[in-house]
């Protein structure tokens, strides 16, 4: 075999910020045509390491060696020249412009005759070439805003290729994608590998590491806590390296038969994605709604809570001692609703933690006559919640935007829990949250169920669905196609049922 | 399935109405005014509409470029006044020199707004609001706040009419519009403008020099406004305190009616801004030929602007809800 230098070697990288050793002698190797997973909880040092590779930060010590040559990365431009390209979590796309314009934004082709003008035909043809290289069919003339998030990401990858990227770094690329889009993304990443490009794949999802990557590097508190070939390890091994301790045993409450029905949905219809859905939800129960994106699970919740118009059916809710019909809007007022996007509609980002926590229950802190808020009580109450949910970070006076993703999500929970709802609706409650926080949130959900809360859970992570739900309704095409209880809830059954007939089409 | 198809058709129709409703409305208005007024669909009336619109056309063309980048320029009316005042100050010189000097003044004024917005990171709304007042103040100082006649060589240009119907001033404004549209749709700079308006942070990440793009956009707006001022001196032969007054709001209204988004990233000079300006001009002209009280115009135009801005928000809302 011909000896070829390794594509990228970061050796003994250290970096400290005032008061923190962000990276401590971290080494990382990426071979040509290799997909390397970079795994770790938030704050483990992944971003710092990648910022150094991207030329955004300078390391205190350590060398970066690209194709056998030691290089200095002093700006993002330097990184770009070496063929290092980033696909960020937040998409870098231009909505009103075409796919081709998005791909070639900074080096649009000049017109042959009038070099001052740009040639759209040439851009379109070249775009088609790059998309073909990725094995994707897409019209280069369509506006990017009409594409799905997954397709936009592929446009970004095509841009990276067009800029002659040799090493593509993906920063949690799958967190906003549906299962179908994720599959498409993975096949594109495998295409990159076939083209002899190297990939660093940053993720929280251990499943993705196992499915996609060749090697893994686990970072914890700024140090490498394990690396090697993915084929040599199990999921549990990696999780142990990431969180530094064993997984707690699954804590599922025994099915209680005495529980009362809290919510009954009958023949709910809304739009094209919810067709005639009926189910009961009991107290002390975690009811999972499982299905692919587009199966109607989010739409069902939105219709149920009056956020989308109802076209039929009715909702009954346990008021006093009987199930009584309730308007969807009123149900929204009764429940706690963790939305799938905490940034947009879950939190008041620039406000301090305590104001976020008490926001749903201000009634309780208002004085009797003048309705003035008693801030001291708010602070005391929220301080207790912060302690009991173990929300760590810069403290409860800090703005929520300064907390890590996992802690932000805990604040979202705290906010709804301070309302003491009997019904919790959770839409992707652990999206973009690191493994440690994910486990804590899972435990919290089970804990609440034990105390009597009825929970409606939507998640795209099959493991989470299996470990948390007492009962699972499988949705496909806006209808319930199966109900699973107890032992029947397994990842294999869930995946099979969700994909259903759409399996063949793949 | 059938029902679904019908739904899709409805959505399609709604999209078409949102995108192209303006042109339908413009056509309908022209037909209605043509039907109820004999003088409306005559060549001389359209020459009149053209001359009434040409000043606004120039200012609107530049405004489109600025608004595509996601900023706003309230200075165009005052810059037009400033350039007209420059023409008056240089009336002793040949017409070409006056035009050149006025253009340079417009470019500098635009560069000041653009520089403050792009490099000092000031809000364009407040910056250009302040400059609007300041530029007007300077113009009032140099003209003494009264009506001032400009040189005869300039006025002679304003009399030129091709085939007894197309005045030079109108032709120039149309040429300017074509030029600005080509810049927007077929140059790198144009693509950068849309990119900056779509997402400034994304534009920065792919390596577009965002401040430079904004600076040039404001310079183009300044130049457009200056040409508007020059044309007004050609046509009227004088500078008055009414030159360019309130034109910034008319320009923004016309541009938004023409489909340019207040949120940046989309819009066109041709056909968008042209149609917007024509709509406003046709309404006042049509009402005028019917002898409707001029006091009614602001109300009618205000309503049209309101509807246009509502539609812009609606489009924007639909886009963001689709992205969800």
Keywords:
heterodimer; A: about 500 residues; alpha/beta; 6-stranded mixed β-sheet; 19 helices; about 25% strand; disordered C terminus; B: about 325 residues; mainly alpha; two-stranded antiparallel sheet; 13 helices; 4 strands; about 75% helix; disordered N terminus
Explain what the structure shows.
The complex is a heterodimer of chains A (506) and B (324). Chain A is an alpha/beta fold. Chain A is built from 19 helices and 20 strands. Chain A has helices at residues 46-53, 76-81, 99-103, 120-133, 149-162, 179-194, 206-212, 235-243, 297-304, 328-334, 342-345, 353-358, 362-365, 375-388, 405-417, 435-450, 462-468, 491-499, 502-505; strands at 8-17, 20-30, 35-39, 61-66, 69-71, 84-87, 167-171, 198-203, 215-220, 223-229, 261-270, 274-282, 286-290, 312-319, 322-325, 336-338, 423-427, 454-458, 471-476, 479-485. Chain A has a 6-stranded mixed β-sheet, with helices on both faces. In chain A, a hairpin with a 2-residue loop joins strand 1 (8-17) and strand 2. The longest helix of chain A has 16 residues, at 179-194. Chain A is globular. Residues 501-506 of chain A have low confidence and may be disordered. In chain B, helix 2 packs across helix 8, helix 2 (43-68) crosses helix 12 and helix 11 (247-257) packs across helix 13 (297-323). Helices cover 77% and strands 2% of the residues of chain B. In chain B, 47% of the residues are buried. Chain B is globular and about 60 Å long. Chain B is an all-alpha fold. Chain B starts with a helix and ends with a helix. Chain B is built from 13 helices and 4 strands. In chain B, a hairpin with a 3-residue loop joins strand 2 (161-162) and strand 3. Chain B has a two-stranded antiparallel sheet. A two-stranded antiparallel sheet of chain B has the order 2-3. Chain B has helices at residues 2-36, 43-68, 76-89, 95-118, 124-143, 152-159, 168-186, 188-198, 200-205, 210-236, 247-257, 269-289, 297-323, and strands at residues 148-149, 161-162, 166-167, 238-239. Residues 1-5 of chain B have low confidence and may be disordered. The interface between A and B is medium-sized, with 24 and 25 residues.
């Amino acid at each position: 075999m011909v000896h070829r230098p390794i594509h990228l070697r970061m050796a003994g990288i250290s970096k400290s910020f005032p008061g923190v050793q962000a990276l401590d002698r971290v080494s990382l190797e990426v071979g040509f045509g290799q997909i390397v997973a970079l795994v770790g909880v938030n704050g483990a040092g992944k971003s710092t390491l990648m910022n150094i590779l991207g030329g955004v930060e300078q390391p205190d010590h350590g060398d970066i060696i690209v194709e056998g040559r030691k290089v200095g990365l002093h700006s993002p431009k330097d990184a770009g020249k070496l063929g290092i390209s980033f696909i960020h979590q937040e998409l870098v796309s231009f909505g009103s412009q075409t796919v081709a314009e998005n791909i070639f934004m900074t080096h649009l082709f000049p017109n042959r005759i009038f070099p001052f003008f740009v040639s759209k035909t040439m851009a379109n043809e070249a775009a088609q070439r790059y998309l073909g290289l990725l094995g994707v069919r897409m019209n280069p003339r369509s506006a990017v805003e009409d594409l799905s998030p997954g397709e936009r990401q592929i446009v970004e990858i095509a841009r990276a290729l067009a800029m002659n990227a040799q090493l593509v770094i993906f920063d949690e690329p799958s967190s906003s994608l549906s299962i179908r889009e994720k599959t498409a993304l993975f096949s594109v990443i495998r295409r990159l590998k076939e083209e002899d490009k190297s990939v660093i794949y940053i993720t929280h999802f251990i499943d993705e590491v196992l499915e996609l990557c060749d090697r893994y590097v686990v970072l914890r508190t700024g140090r490498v806590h394990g690396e090697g070939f993915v084929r040599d390890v199990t999921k549990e091994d990696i999780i142990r390296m990431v969180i530094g301790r064993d997984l707690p045993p699954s804590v599922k409450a025994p099915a209680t038969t005495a529980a009362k029905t809290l919510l009954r949905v009958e023949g709910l219809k809304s739009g094209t994605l919810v067709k005639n859905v009926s189910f009961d939800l009991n107290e002390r129960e975690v009811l999972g709604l499982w299905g692919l994106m587009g199966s109607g699970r989010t739409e069902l919740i939105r219709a149920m809570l009056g956020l989308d118009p109802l076209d039929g059916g009715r909702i009954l809710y346990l008021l006093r001692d009987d199930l009584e019909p309730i308007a969807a809007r009123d149900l929204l007022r009764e429940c706690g609703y963790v939305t799938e996007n905490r940034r947009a509609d879950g939190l008041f980002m620039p406000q301090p933690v305590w104001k976020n926590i008490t926001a749903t229950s201000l009634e309780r802190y208002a004085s009797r006559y003048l309705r003035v808020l008693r801030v001291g009580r708010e602070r005391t109450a929220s301080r207790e919640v912060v302690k009991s949910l173990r929300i760590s970070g810069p403290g409860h006076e800090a703005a929520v935007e300064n907390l890590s993703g996992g802690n932000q999500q805990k604040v979202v929970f705290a906010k709804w829990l301070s309302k003491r709802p009997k019904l919790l609706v959770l839409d992707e409650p652990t999206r973009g949250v690191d493994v440690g926080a994910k486990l804590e949130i899972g435990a919290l959900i089970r804990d609440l169920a034990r105390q009597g809360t009825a929970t409606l859970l939507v998640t795209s992570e099959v493991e989470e669905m299996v470990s948390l739900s007492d009962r699972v309704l499988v949705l496909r095409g806006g209808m319930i196609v199966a109900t699973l209880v107890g032992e029947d809830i397994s990842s294999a059954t869930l995946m099979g049922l969700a994909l259903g007939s759409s399996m063949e089409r793949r | 399935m059938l029902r679904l198809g019908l739904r899709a058709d409805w959505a399609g129709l709604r999209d078409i109405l949102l995108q192209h409703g303006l042109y339908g409305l413009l056509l309908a208005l022209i037909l209605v005014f043509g039907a109820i007024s004999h003088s409306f669909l005559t060549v001389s009336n359209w020459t009149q509409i053209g001359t009434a619109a040409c000043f606004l056309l120039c200012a609107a063309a530049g405004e489109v470029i600025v608004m595509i980048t996601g900023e706003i320029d309230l200075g165009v009316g005052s810059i037009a006044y400033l350039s007209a005042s420059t023409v008056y100050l240089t009336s002793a010189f040949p017409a070409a020199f006056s035009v050149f000097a006025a253009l340079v003044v417009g470019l500098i004024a635009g560069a000041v707004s653009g520089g403050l917005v792009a490099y000092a990171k000031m809000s364009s709304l407040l910056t250009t609001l302040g400059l609007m007042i300041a530029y007007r103040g300077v113009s009032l100082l140099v003209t003494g706040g009264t009506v001032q006649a400009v040189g005869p060589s300039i006025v002679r240009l304003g009399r030129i009419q091709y085939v007894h119907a197309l005045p030079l001033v109108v032709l120039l404004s149309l040429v300017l519009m074509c030029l600005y549209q080509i810049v927007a749709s077929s140059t790198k700079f144009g693509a950068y403008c849309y990119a900056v308006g779509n997402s400034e942070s994304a534009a920065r990440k792919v390596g577009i020099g965002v401040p430079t793009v904004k600076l040039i956009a404001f310079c183009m707006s300044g130049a457009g406004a200056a040409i508007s001022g020059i044309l007004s001196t050609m046509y009227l032969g004088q500078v008055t305190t009414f030159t360019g007054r309130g034109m910034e709001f008319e320009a923004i209204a016309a541009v938004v009616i023409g489909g340019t988004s207040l949120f940046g990233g989309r819009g066109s000079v041709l056909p968008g801004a042209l149609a917007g300006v024509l709509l406003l001009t046709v309404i006042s002209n049509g009402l005028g030929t019917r002898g409707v009280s001029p006091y009614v115009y602001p109300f009618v135009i205000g309503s049209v602007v309101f509807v246009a801005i509502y539609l812009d928000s609606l489009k924007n809302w639909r886009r963001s809800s689709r992205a969800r």
